[in-house]
Design a protein that fits this description.
The protein is of the alpha/beta class. The chain is built from 13 helices and 14 strands. Keywords: Signal. Residues 54-284 form the Solute-binding protein family 3/N-terminal domain.
Length: 300
């Protein structure tokens, strides 16, 4: 199972302007795109997968999004994708481990068919690959000591209480705190999620600001803490949903569209969605709004 430092890399840097390997290997991505465009994918991709009986999926070993436990591929993305591909007549996921920065280049090079890693949907990534509709959103939450002694529920209440809030170094949550009007001397920077949990437990900060998904996972190994109900922060009046989805090669639009049809059945059924993903800390709070569309997210 992945450790928490990997969670910070996956959960935050992919939402910043520096979108992993996409900005540092443009030549590779361009070359791979040409290879994919010239391959025999397109409308025949799903039929090919049905005939071979499996789909090759890439994961980055980052819990709770996609990771190997023993010999079993687990997490949000593989669980959803297994359900969807079974409905499409493909019974098996064959996993390939990849470094985070290599996920899209490997996809474009034909090493696998789908990225199953809970990857955030950004315009930069959309330029090099096809995304499904959102599988989840990542509302923000606060980790606090048990019983929530300061009684905070969101950034507005944190500001009103005058508490000290911890954020990850380089993470978007620092901007959320600033946007909410929390004074700079009340915001402490931490290097990894476990540092945030330790700072809460040790009283060095009053609350740790992170996605609810990651905090609930972190709380499993830090029982002295609890996590508030998630909320959707705003920056300049825009809600920050941070959605993620499956990723396909360009040229595989038909496969992506078939996937989306089955995905819609799951995200339209609250109880089914929660029953599939609650093991990984996902709840109805992470259900993407029906109005949130990948085409809009890709435009930025």
């Amino acid at each position: 199972m992945a450790d928490f430092p990997n969670l910070s890399r996956r959960g935050f840097l992919n939402r910043s302007a520096a979108v992993g390997g996409l900005l540092v290997v443009p030549g590779l991505l361009s070359a791979c795109s040409k290879t994919a465009a010239g391959s025999a994918d397109g409308a025949g991709a799903l039929e090919k997968l049905r005939k071979q009986g499996f789909v090759r999926v890439a994961y980055a070993n980052e819990a709770p999004y996609g990771y190997l436990e023993g010999k079993q591929l687990k997490g949000e993305a593989p669980t959803l994708h297994r359900e969807i591909f079974k409905a499409l007549g493909v019974d098996e996921l064959k996993p390939t481990l990849s470094e985070w920065d290599g996920l899209i280049p490997g996809l474009q090079a034909g090493k696998y068919d789908v990225v199953s890693a809970g990857m955030a949907i950004t315009p930069e990534r959309c330029a090099n690959a096809l995304f499904s509709e959102p599988e989840f959103i990542s509302p923000t939450a606060l980790m606090v000591k048990k019983s929530n002694p300061k009684k905070v529920t969101d950034l507005a209440s944190a500001k009103a209480a005058g508490i000290t809030v911890g954020v990850m170094s380089g993470a978007v949550e620092g901007k959320y705190a600033e946007g909410a009007g929390i004074a700079g001397d009340k915001v402490k920077t931490l290097q990894k999620p476990q540092d945030g949990a330790d700072a809460v437990k040790g009283g060095r900060i009053d609350a740790f600001l992170l996605t609810g998904i990651s905090l609930r996972w972190l709380a499993k190994t830090n029982p002295e803490t609890e996590v508030t109900e998630p909320f959707v922060p705003e920056l300049d009046g825009t809600k920050q949903y941070s959605p993620g989805g499956a990723v396909f090669r360009k040229g595989n639009e038909d496969l992506r569209d078939a996937f989306n049809r089955e995905l819609k059945k799951i995200v339209s059924d609250r109880s089914r969605y929660v029953s599939l993903l609650q093991e990984y800390g996902f709840s109805a709070t992470e259900l993407p709004p029906a109005t949130l569309k990948t085409a809009d997210l890709c435009k930025g």
